[in-house]
Amino acid sequence: MEALDILLPKLSELLTEEYNLHKKLRGEIMFLKAELESMEAALIKVSEKPIDQQPDPQDKIWVRDVRDLSYDIEDSIDKFMIHVDPRAPNKLHSFRGFIDRSLKLLNRAKFRHKIGTDIEEIKGRIKEVTERRYRYKVDGVAAKPVYPTIDILRLSALNKRAEEFVDIDEKRDEVVRRLMEGDEMSKKQLRIVSIVGFGGLGKTALAYVVYEKLKIQFDCVAFVSVSLNPNMIKIFKDMFDQLDKEKNTDISKQATWDETLLIIKLREFLRDKRYLVVIDDIWDTPAWETIKYSLSDNENGSRIITTTRIFDVAEEVGGIYQMAPLSVEHSRKLFCLRIFGAEERCPNQLAEVSEKILRKCAGVPLAIITIASVLASKSKVGNEHTYWSKVYQSMGSGLEDNLHVKNMRRILSVSYYDLPPNLRTCLLYLCLYPEDYYIPREDLIRLWVYEGFVHREQGKNMYQVGEDYFNELVRKFRVHDMVHDLITSLSNEECFVTTVCGQHVSPIRCKVRRLSLQTSYEDSLKQLETMSLSHVRSLIVLKRFKLVPAPLSKIFPVLRVLNLAYCEQVKNQHVKDICHLFHLRFLDLWGTSITELPREIKNLRFLQTLKMGETGIEELPSTFVQLEQLEYFVFRSKMRLPNGFGNLKCLQELGGDIIIDSPTMLDDLGRLTELRRLSIDFNDRWNKSYEEAFLRCLAKLTSLCQLAITGNLSLGSKELLSSDMHNSDIYSPVPNWKSSISSLSTLNAQLKTLGEGVLELLGSLPSLRYLSIEVDEPTLDRDERLTIGTIYPFMCLTWFRLSSATMEVAFAKGAMPKLHALRLIFEVQKTKELFGGDMDFGLENLSSLQLASICLSNCSCATPEEIEVVEDALRKAVTMNPNNPSFELQRSDDDDNRGGGSGGCDDDNDDDALE
Question: In this protein, which residues make up the domain named NB-ARC (predicted)?
């Protein structure tokens, strides 16, 4: 459970000698740690129950109480640690320093007493929570469910009238074709089709109609469901009962047959038969492997159909048929059929709201049928438009309490409960944002980390582990609006997020820990004033919310995440107050009205992410360099960092151009050894004094993955990255600079001229995938093109952009073997002046090319005939490429002096490739 995952390590840290706790207090904390570890083990056991045995109401109350308790303990410890942290800066000299130290000692004594009092209270609460659970728990009594099982709910779709399965005929015929067509030899082989897609698409319904159409052609047939927690003996007995029509083997009497014997008997039974078997709802590969052993692979033309939500399982089974959502037309047909009993169109007064509802259903049949059933139940009560609008507004809020909606959520929830507990928590965090809201991937991962949802793994930093979580969720979940509704409902049930959205406010039955403000309605604001907000850990304020409560530091004393992006009413005075939110890890001030950061920014010494683009800030205070935990700083514009910024040793990414205007700043930059992404602007001040400092800086940035350099870099008369670099004595103190950039995956460089050494160096980088080069001046003494060949072939490069007045490069066979996208920008006239009429760039030699995009810039300097000749030559070269790439050709008549001849050529799409 996420609350305990972050709390237990903090308790361990508190027990270290540096906090110098007295014996009694250490003993109390050790008691807390032991109790909470036992609770964690019990929570894991509860979370692993099968879907139809999810925690009973008493268990749910206990889980909620433990989570609440854990958060309160963590808040108390954080308040204590921030006041007694032995690593906090301390002035050692002067009378003022003596006074500060004396006051700190008094404060430490005060807070040690305070945490001792808190722990006594917490011990009492632990005892109360535990006793309450067992006081009302009835063990050993298996309560009969008062609702249909998940399997019954899923299979109930098969009882619908066939005509309600819109779009089913086309899909059925395609699956039948895959199963049955072929020559006589192939028809005798065993064939499998695995129908895969997320919950609610109608996989089971499709498998059923195929089964009904084909079963008459087979000796024996069976349709069995596996589900999330399969009872294999029951499945095999059920399969046997259906396959053995003559009941030659009375399976009900074989009580002693175990799983192995059942597999053997099934294989024997099917050995000489032509069978059709549907294995519905497989959740993991081991379940499929076990069932596969029971199905004889004879040459009698047998067929197997499987359904699964898990793509990995479908790949293992083979014969993938991927279910797609319904088209708009078929969605509308199913919707009207369910409500009106015919395919007639909605009445005009309901047409607009019905289209909105269908957009939210996103072509998912289960969602369409569910919402249509809700609407059909009150289709003739008068004022239908008001009711339909109310249902539309409630979709995604998790507040709709209709039986149809509850059943749909239970079906979809199987995928949710199949996730590990930590991934469930990460998924629930999406409830902080409304449907269809764009959440930057990097932000979401960092928020998970700061909230404590991400567990440490050996050999990876926390962000990398969070990336693994994200990729796993993307693989297993598609968060369409009905899934958002599901997780919002679960969040409401667990008091995970409190949302203020229009007239809807999620239920508040316990302390508010995460608050999402998504509206500016006055009624909602009044309700906000009635809430206790002192325990809020994450506050997301969306731009439609126009008022910011103040002072924030008093209202939200334990806040860790604060997102105020595009809240225009946030001004400088608010930021001064924010600087007293001592626990902040994440602060987003993007698009606010602030014009400066106050010196008090140094108070946020736990801050790890700061975003402040599209503001009036042009420089940073000197105290900014005291943010020693800062990892991610985004500002987008050009920024000069204050002197001493090398103290920001945790910094991993700089999202904007930092201006370098002195060699001393390069020394500071070289101290940021954790940097993974960097963009440098030398502000056209490059001179010989920068050379050694820059190379020394590069040698230290061993973690760098993305690098952008602008500023006409040169080494006197030679390029900075010239082929003579490694032979020059001036570079002998920094021999490792080249190896330090071996991990670069992205490079954006602006060069004065293009030398052979540049291509040799960059072509040998083993990880380079994205490369953009802008060349300011052509090499006038060159009489032939630089050839990129097999010696330095850019083995990993997938995207390449070159902008220059003259096209000085050609590609030999074997060059850039993985290149997918090429973007060339050059002038026809200047290229002709240097190379005559030679327009052979070797485009046919790029074996993996999928897109060639070429812009002829400053075309006004060439005749129309010259332009057409060049274009024809380029088309011919692309046509000769065996990979048949797409070809885009542009002309530009003006020269805006960007990138040595890229004037007028639109590169917006190119930037996306570097993200």
Answer: 171-341
Detail the DSSP E strand segments found in 597-669. Answer: 609-611, 632-639, 653-659
Measure the CA–CA gap between 403 and 406, rounded to whole angstroms: 5
Of the pLDDT bands very low, low, confident and very high (cuts 50, 70, 90), residue 12 is low
Phi, psi for residue 320 in degrees, rounded to 5 = -65, 130
Q: What is the pLDDT of residues 327-352, one digit of tens each?
A: 888 888 888 887 777 666 777 778 88
Task: Output DSSP code: residue 715.
Answer: B
Q: From the CB of residue 898, how many other CB atoms can be counted at a distance below 10 Å?
A: 15
In 304-402, which residue ranges form alpha helices assigned H by DSSP?
311-317, 328-340, 348-361, 365-376, 384-394
Nearest partner of 450 among 469, 434, 467, 466, judged by Cα: 466
Pairwise CA distance, residues 577 & 38, whole Å: 40
Residues 6+ apart with CB under 8 A from 591: 543, 565, 566, 567, 568, 613, 614, 615
In the chain, the percentage of residues whose pLDDT exceeds 90 is: 18
Rg (CA), the chain: 33
**60 vs 864: CA distance, rounded Å:** 76
Q: Which neighbouring-strand residues pair with 653?
A: 632, 677
Higher pLDDT, 776 or 7: 776
Per-residue CA distances from 290 to 157, 225, 270 (Å): 27, 14, 16
Q: Which two tokens stand for residue 231?
A: 């009872």
- H or E, element range at 641: none
How many angstroms separate the CA atoms of 610 and 634, rounded?
6
pLDDT bin (cut points 50, 70, 90) of residue 723 is very low
Which helix (H) or strand (E) segment holds residue 323: the answer is none
Mark out the alpha helices in 635-747 (DSSP H runs). Answer: 663-670, 691-700, 737-740
Is 0.85 topped by the overall pTM? no
- The pLDDT of residue 719 is 39
- Name the pLDDT band for 145 (thresholds 50, 70, 90): very low
Please give the C-alpha separations between residue 339 and each of 345, 369, 379, 401, 737, in angstroms, as whole numbers: 11, 9, 8, 19, 70
Question: Among 14-28, 280-294, 525-539, 898-912, where is mean pLDDT lowest?
Answer: 898-912
Q: What is the rounded distance in angstroms from the CA atom of residue 548 to the CA atom of residue 564? A: 9
* Omega before 551 within 30 of 0, i.e. cis: yes
